TrEMBL record:
Pathway field: Lipid metabolism; Phospholipid metabolism; CDP-diacylglycerol biosynthesis; CDP-diacylglycerol from sn-glycerol 3-phosphate: step 3/3
Protein name per the record: Phosphatidate cytidylyltransferase, mitochondrial
One of the record's GO molecular function terms: phosphatidate cytidylyltransferase activity
Presence of the UniProt keyword Transferase in the record: yes
Keyword presence, Transferase: yes
Cofactor dependency: Mg(2+)
């Protein structure tokens, strides 16, 4: 099944224009303006799924002789996840190679090339993934180990891993997309002055306090906030407009020996919350029948693997 993410400047308009045959039965029965408003509210979470990924998924859609699924997301929410990692859902997907579908053939009105801020957000997201992966790795490691860390950032903590998803999914992704991953990340590594890449196979990095501090500063806001909450639980960071100085605390954290372990737990927590809420939400949007058809083969494969 091919998986698409549709980034919309106005996703409510998208829901109005798209065929309601794509939607599960409960949504199809009430094709009204009020339903569209509720559907859009449901996409952006409302109060039911505050930690979901702000996507509305339609699944098992026949298209040109095969099945597809697609998630609809507002541009604002798309960019927010790429730059701040509040959910690490869209951001995690774009750590991996993707095919950019820019414009539909013969109809310029059905699609448009991503604008510069979106491209910049995608590039920034991957650069921050590099920083996170390097913080999780020792002084010397292989390119393969690095790619495993990159791909695994958005899977460790995912509630689906081990039962609905193959526990070897990270290995398979790295093996299957090795060349594309190298094309994405080797140039980024070589542009880092604190990194030495030997023959595109082995990597040596500077793990001094200054470098760790620099990499921590480069992490997305919600990861930094999670680290501060982990080390200083009595000084909770709950909002952007906090009066507490995150940079000062990050500096102190950079001197700690257990940064990799704490960072790993913070990432797992972000991924765990968003994947749990989004999985439940996807079941609502897909409906009982489609959800069963989608998840049953995955469960069977999981049982057979065990």
């Amino acid at each position: 099944m091919v998986d698409f993410i549709l980034v919309c400047n106005n996703s409510m308009l998208f829901h109005q224009k798209i065929s309601f045959a794509h939607y599960s039965l409960p949504w199809r029965l009430l094709k009204t303006e009020r339903l569209i408003n509720n559907l859009y509210w449901f996409q952006r979470d409302g109060f039911l799924f505050p930690k979901g990924a702000k996507l509305f998924y339609n699944t098992l859609i026949p298209s040109r002789g095969r099945l597809i699924k697609y998630g609809v997301i507002d541009t604002e929410d798309f960019e927010a996840d790429l730059l701040d990692w509040p959910k690490l859902y869209i951001a995690g997907r774009l750590h991996k190679p993707v095919l950019n579908v820019l414009v539909w053939p013969n109809d310029q009105n059905l699609g448009q090339e991503p604008n510069r801020p979106i491209w910049q957000a995608i590039n920034d997201n991957r650069w921050m993934a590099v920083q996170a992966a390097l913080l999780l790795l020792p002084e010397k490691f292989s390119v393969k180990e690095f790619l495993h860390k990159i791909v695994g950032l958005s899977y460790k903590g995912d509630v689906r891993m081990g039962w609905a998803e193959d526990s070897r999914k990270i290995d398979k992704l790295v093996e299957g997309a090795n060349e594309q991953l190298r094309m994405l990340y080797i140039p980024l590594l070589k542009n880092d002055k604190q990194i030495l890449v030997e023959n595109d196979e082995m990597i040596e990095q500077d793990n001094s306090i200054q470098t760790v501090f620099h990499r921590l500063q480069m992490l997305p806001y919600f990861v930094q906030r999670g680290l501060c909450n982990s080390y200083y639980p009595s000084r909770r960071f709950r909002r952007y407009n906090t009066n507490l100085d995150i940079e000062e605390l990050i500096y102190h954290i950079s001197h700690r020996y257990d940064v990799p372990e704490r960072l790993d737990l913070v990432l797992q927590k972000i991924v765990g919350h968003s994947s749990k809420h989004q999985s439940i939400k996807n079941a609502f949007t897909a409906g009982i029948s489609r959800s069963f058809k989608y998840i049953w083969p995955k469960l069977i494969k999981g049982i057979l693997r065990k």
